[in-house]
Amino acid sequence: MIKTAETYHVPVLLKESVDGLDIKPDGVYIDVTFGGGGHSKEILTRLSKKGHLYSFDQDADAEKNIVNDGRFTFVRSNFRYIKNWMRYYGVEHIDGLLADLGVSSHHFDDESRGFSFRYDAPLDMRMNKRAGQTAADILNDYDEEQIADILYIYGELKNARKIASTIVKSRQSKRIDTTGDLLNLVTSLFAKEREKKEIAKLFQALRIEVNHEMDALKEMLNGAKDLLCEGGRLSVITYHSLEDRIVKNFIKAGNAEGKVTQDFFGRIEAPFKAVNNKIIVPDESEQESNPRSRSAKLRIAEKL
User: Fold this and answer.
1) What is the percentage of the chain residues whose pLDDT exceeds 70?
2) Which residues of 197-220 are buried (b: 16+ CB within 10 A; e: fewer)?
3) pTM of the model as a whole
């Protein structure tokens, strides 16, 4: 198990994402994905004594990496509740928000959490180990149609119905409790040359459902829209098409669906403008040193 802040999570697009915040030294900022603290520590180096950073993480393991700094406040919570927490702290407006979405290196490398199919472990996948359903609960309790929808929508698996049918039939005789149990059931359903990629999609779909990631992302972005002051920056790193589409739509139209509204004069009403019209991706050296970064995309927007 990875235990140190240095190896808990290697921050992706560190300089680019923090540069994108265009930090004001006396400003107030939020890092909604604290993890190993890499992005937070970089933000703190750019703040004056008057600046402040609030960092969110619902995973108890992340608390081991908390920064001892008077300008820093750690919030043990899902980032979907940023508006409630900022109200609690008496903060009406912020100057920037950074999000490094997806799963940290720590979660994939922790054999006990069930995020990776590299290890035979309990099918947990909860970011917050203190509450909620596990992946095993979903596989054993959801009906066949629900499982198929999750695999198709969140994993974009073309044979989602066949996989769901296999799971439901198998669980009638034996409960599916571990990653090994699941792999024994589904591996033969994938073509050998695409096996690892398809299994990764399957695990991604279950993880998204377990943690309600898409709903949480939408709520967080709505909170950011209300909290950011004029000229405030949103800097978001995504790792798969589902979350990237939501972020892209939100920057374009102010909502997850990308529905553009116009005022009386036909002008598009959008709360943000894109700072980088071209998606920022890690360079070759970062992709080689940090494999997790290979699918990363950074979008930066400014509040109008």
Assistant:
1) 92
2) ebbebbbbbbbbbbbebbebbbbb
3) 0.89
